[in-house]
Every structure is written in C-alpha cells, then in structure tokens.
Design a protein that fits this description.
The complex is a heterotrimer of chains A (250), B (191) and C (194).
Chain A (H helix, E strand, L loop, with lengths): L7 H7 L4 H15 L1 H4 L23 E3 H21 L1 H5 L4 H12 L25 H17 L5 E4 L8 E6 L21 H13 L4 E7 L9 E7 L1 H13 L3
Antiparallel strand pairs in A: 2-3, 3-5, 4-5
Helix pairs in contact in A: 1-2, 4-6, 6-8
Chain B lengths: L2 H14 L3 E3 H18 L4 H27 L7 H17 L4 E3 L7 E6 L16 H4 L5 H12 L2 E9 L8 E10 L10
Antiparallel strand pairs in B: 2-3, 3-5, 4-5
Chain C lengths: L13 H8 L3 H8 E7 L5 E6 L9 H20 L4 E2 L16 H4 E2 L12 E3 L4 E6 L5 E6 L7 H14 L15 H11 L4
Antiparallel strand pairs in C: 1-2, 1-7, 3-4, 5-6, 6-7
Helix pairs in contact in C: 5-6
The chains are: A alpha+beta (250), B alpha+beta (191), C alpha+beta (194).
C-alpha cells in the first residue's frame, strides 16, 4: 500500500531525540490533512460533501449484514481470481490459500488508500493513543471489535513461550465475516477472517506498532469457525516497549 | 401495489427481519474494493466501472433470493410496480435507503432512481487527478446488482448512473431501462 | 388443508396431541419432515437430505431421475392449467376467422397470479410439497401427511438457503450444494434447537 508511514508520528514521540524524523513528519502533515483547500475537485452546489456533514453521523448507523456478506464474498472471489492469475505470487506461496490470505491482508487494512477516502480513520479510538502493547491490544479486543462487530473479542492471550514474547493471540469464537461462508474441504487451510487480520495489522501500524497478524482456524465442536488472530510485534516495538517499561509509561 | 404500501413493507422488513451490522463496516469494505480495483487497474476508471458492474451482477444473482425469502413478495404486475419494489423494499432492506422513483418515460419502460443518501459513498472523495470525477462511477456496483437480480426474475434491464454528488453533481441519479421480459422455460402457448 | 382422514385417524390419540401442544411450532413440524430436495432451474438435483434416522435411501441416480422427472411434470402441470375465455370475449364457442388471435382471448382463472405448476402431491403415507421460487429453484419437502401446512418450514428453508448457500462465495450458482454451514443450520433448526 502506498499509504504514508503512519507510525512515523509515533516514532517522534518515542525517540524525541532524533529531530530529523520529526522534521520530515511535520512536512507531511499539511498535505494529507487538508485536501479540501488544495483540491481541484468539483463539489455539488448544495455542498453534499464529506466535509459538510457530521463526522460521527454514521457511527451508530446500521446496514444489513447481508450487504456486508455480499461485498465480502465478492472480495473473496476477486482475490481468488487475482491469485490464480498472478503466477509468480502463487509460486512464492506454499498453497494457493496462503496467497489468498495474504492478498486479503494487503487488501484489507482500512482506511483504503488515500485518494479515495482521506476522511476519518475507521476506528474512532479514544483521544489518547495507546503507547504500550497491552493497552493497544485491549483497544483492539474491546472498542475496535465492538465498533466493527458489535461485541468484544472472546479472548486475549500472551504467548507463554519465553522465545516468543512478541506473540499475542486474539480469539473470536464466531467471526462475523465468516458467518455465511463454508470453505470447501480442499481449501481447509484458508480462513477468510484473514481480512480481519489485515484490519488488525492496519490498526497496529496506524498506532505505530509494527506487527504481522495472521488468522488461524481453531475450531471447537461448539464454535466451528473459531479463529485465532496471531499478532507478532516487530523487534523495534519490543525494544521500545522495554524503554517505556523502564520509564514507567503506562 | 402502491408506492406507500411498498414503503411500509420495506420499513417493516428492515425493522423486524434484517440482521444488521455497523454501517461503517460495509462502507469501508466497499471503499476498499473500489480502491483496490483502482490500484489493480492502474486508475483505468472505465475498466473499474466495468469490474464494479460485473461484481454487482454476481451479487444481484445471489441477493435476489434473500430479497424474495425475506420479503415474501410475489411477481410484480408491471414495471412500475417493479420500480417501487426495487426502491422501497430492495434498497431499504439492503442499504436502509429508499431512493425516489421518477422521470418515467411515457411507455413506462424507463425510470430514474434519485438517491438522497448513499451509504456506499460515505467518507468518499474521488481522487483529485483530473480524471476520476469525469470517468469513475463510484457506486457502479449498484447497477450490476439491479441487472443481476432482475435477470433472475426474468427481466432484462439496463442500468447506469447519470449523475453523482461525488462528481460535483447536485444529485445522484441512476437510470433504469427495461429491455425485455425474458421468456422462461414455459412451453409456448399454443391454442 | 388437513388430510381428509385426519379426524378419523386412530393414531391421533390424545397423548400425542398433548405432547404436540407443549412443544414449539418448529419442533412439531420438524418431527414430521422426512427429507428435502432442491432442484435447480434446469431440473438438476443440487441437494438431497434426510432428516430422520434410518430412512431407506434411494440411489443417487434414482434421486437424479426423480428430480428431472418432477421438473418435467411440474412444467406440464403449468402448461395444462385450464384457461378461461376473457370476459369481454362474448361468444368464445363460436370461432370466427377474424378472432384468430387466441392468446389474447384467454386467461388463467385468476389473471393476477401466473400459473404455478404442481404444488403438492399426497399419498396415504407422505405428502410432497413443492415451492418454486420466482427465480425457478424448486424446494421439495417430504412430510408426514397428517401434519398441517409446511409453510413455516418451507420459508425457513428458503431463508437458510439464501443465507448459507447464496452468500457463500465458494458456492457456484446452479451447482450441487456443498455448504457445511447450510447443513449445520438446517439440521439444527429442524431439530428445534435454534
């Protein structure tokens, strides 16, 4: 995605000493935050534009779950088609399904790339951006999940292995995106909730936490489409975490 | 069936029989699809319009079953009734909007849908590249949905947008024309 | 809608009535559903399932033939629907050469609704109810003839089909239905769990 590195602002907070990165950030801000003034776009005379309506107008609005299912289904179909069409992408992956997953992930993170939707970032998170991993994960597990799926996620766990302290798991017993989907047996590795993994990754990235997120099938008898999202934070994040720990930042 | 009756049916189904999700999830998903298409087709907006229409067609062929199952309505007596069904029941239960049906031609085969609200386009501003506002029909998927859905109930139609507030127009208007009723597998009437 | 023998049927003793009255409607109906068949627009069998353990099964080929035959019979029953002369046509019996535009001169008994084709078929032992959607797909329910109308079951089956078959991107239209979520929800609902 060609989106500007949204975590750069975060860097400027954590490493306040490096003034260079802060400088480049500042120059980016005006051009991305005020498209209205510089825009050559035509607007309707009744000014029905995104700048003229309340930001939270649709926050509590509802649409049919069916509409989401159809759009999501088309996305799945489209990704499948692209993947078989792009052979070199397929070669680099073990299974076609894995490449479908990665295609979703790259497709997924909202907001869509800048030109089409420069307006608000999707999860209107509390004004205080999380600085620590746990507060970020709580934000995703609770408010983000509630915003997108009307309920919190079902579990949030930290890896017990000393070798992978950077791994966290968010569990959803019944992901909304998979409600109507039955994956054929021959593609049983595929989990369409990779779309949600993409969203999580986008949110982590947007908050300045470099991470890789993947979706894994962990069905139980009661929850046949139970999915675990494995969040793996990057080294830079883990190092910063240590610094913040010592500094007593919550 | 009158327009008012269709509106009542639409409202009733929307209130009592529709599973809902957060509107922004739908809006952002659709935005992601269009953005991805623009990227994959290198901002060839004619091609993007075509792809959106095709996706919509695929959706329409499936969505019609949900429409029929949820609404329980029977076959429309004429194309005017069909228009009301689309606007007041179909759009209502899937997008929670009820566009105005207007600008009928005298042969009752063509009408316009005027959208006051379009949830698919919330948050959207077209790319400021000097072309998108002239070439891209952001909500073109809806044309395909109507085409696909009506084809499944034996109506061949043509639908296209003629204006869009995203392009700086004052209204968002879709033009729908009945091409023909498709004869089903019924043997020809012979007597 | 009740079977004519219903009132005389010795099997319908009072304990069964009592039992039935304490269960939700879906449960009562579910007890009487033997099996379901779905036929696509072209007359092909795309789904077949039994809902009671131990039912004797036909071979796959027999089911395919059954679906195709039913499809044909259904089309015939539509085409043989009697047509009445239009009211304005004052003397239909007298055929004059000038009035040789027959299709405009006749109409179905109730012109508002098109001819539907075979809707139900009943024997001493079972009832077959056919529901054809406006898109041409047919749902066939085999039920106990002593049970009442199966409208509720039929509507629910159609809704589940619209949800778990048509909204599944891996399902290809008109092809055999292999959707695990459809099987699961259909089974659960018919067992009266959901």
């Amino acid at each position: 995605m060609a989106a500007p590195p949204r975590h750069s602002t975060m860097l400027s907070i954590s490493n306040a000493g490096t003034s260079q990165s802060t400088g480049t950030d500042r120059t980016q801000v005006p051009q991305s935050s005020s498209p209205a003034q510089t825009s050559g776009l035509r607007v309707p005379s009744n000014r029905k534009t995104i700048y003229d309506r309340h930001l939270n107008r649709s926050r509590n609005a509802e649409l049919s779950r069916a509409s989401f299912a159809y759009l999501f289904g088309e996305m799945v179909t489209y990704a499948q088609r692209r993947v078989t069409g792009i052979q070199d992408l397929e070669k680099r992956k073990d299974t076609p399904s894995a490449s479908v997953c990665s295609t979703y992930s790259s497709t997924a993170p909202p907001p869509p790339p800048p030109p089409l939707s420069p307006a608000p970032p999707p999860p209107r998170l509390p004004p205080n951006r999380p600085l620590r991993i746990l507060s970020l994960l709580h934000l995703i597990h609770g408010p983000l999940w509630r915003l997108l799926f009307q309920r919190a996620a079902d579990a949030l766990e930290h890896s017990v292995s000393a070798e992978t302290p950077n791994e966290y798991m968010i569990t959803d017993n019944d992901p909304l995106v998979n409600t109507y989907i039955s994956v054929p047996r021959e593609m049983s590795m595929l989990n369409c909730a990779a779309f949600v993994a993409g969203i999580i990754e986008g949110v982590c990235d947007g908050c300045g936490f470099e991470a890789k997120v993947s979706a894994h099938n962990q069905p139980t008898e009661m929850w046949p489409s139970r999915t675990v999202f494995l969040v793996r934070f990057g080294e830079s994040v883990m190092e910063r975490e240590k610094v913040l720990e010592r500094a007593g930042v919550k | 069936m009158s327009t008012q009756k269709a509106s009542r049916i639409g409202e009733e189904i929307w209130k009592t029989r529709i599973d809902k999700v957060n509107a922004e999830l739908v809006t952002l998903t659709y935005g992601t699809i269009v953005a991805q298409l623009c990227q994959d087709y290198d901002s060839n907006y004619q091609e993007v319009n075509k792809q959106l229409d095709k996706m919509g067609y695929n959706i329409g062929m499936r969505l019609i079953e949900d429409f029929l199952a949820k609404s329980g309505v029977g076959r429309c007596a004429n194309f005017r009734e069909t228009a009301d069904m689309i606007a007041k029941v179909g759009f209502k239960i899937f997008l929670n909007v009820a566009p105005t049906v207007t600008n009928w031609t005298s042969d009752n085969n063509q009408f316009s849908l005027i959208f006051d609200d379009n949830p698919l386009a919330d948050f959207v501003e077209l790319p400021d590249d000097g072309r998108a506002q002239d070439e891209l029909w952001f909500s073109n998927i809806l044309c395909g949905v109507l085409r696909g859905a009506l084809e499944m109930v034996q109506m061949q139609i043509e639908a296209h947008f003629v204006s869009d507030v995203l392009r700086g127009d004052d209204t968002t208007e879709m033009r729908v024309s009945l091409v023909r009723y498709i004869e089903d597998e019924m043997p020809p009437e012979d007597d | 809608m009740l079977h004519p023998d219903w009132l005389l049927d010795p099997r319908l003793d009072s304990p069964r009535d009592e039992l039935a009255s304490c269960f939700p409607v879906a449960f009562q109906l579910a007890r009487t559903v033997f099996s379901l068949i779905i036929i696509n627009k072209a007359g092909g069998l795309i789904y077949q399932r039994e809902f009671q353990a131990g039912l004797r099964k036909l071979s796959t080929n027999d089911y395919l033939v059954l679906a195709g035959t039913f499809h044909g019979v259904h089309a015939i029953t539509r085409s043989i629907t009697p047509k009445l002369p239009l009211a304005s046509n004052t003397s239909p019996a007298v055929s004059s050469p000038g009035a040789n535009t027959p299709t405009t001169g006749y109409s179905y008994p109730n012109p508002g609704t098109p001819a539907s084709g075979l809707e139900s078929l009943e024997t001493e032992k079972f009832r077959l109810t056919c529901f054809q959607t406006l898109t041409g797909t047919k749902f066939l329910l085999f039920t106990d003839p002593t049970s009442g109308t199966v409208d509720t079951v039929m509507n629910k089956v159609y809704e589940l089909y619209a949800d778990y078959v048509m909204k599944n991107p891996f399902y290809q239209l008109e092809m055999p239905v292999r959707c695990e979520a459809f099987d699961r929800h259909l089974g659960a609902w018919l067992r009266g769990r959901t």
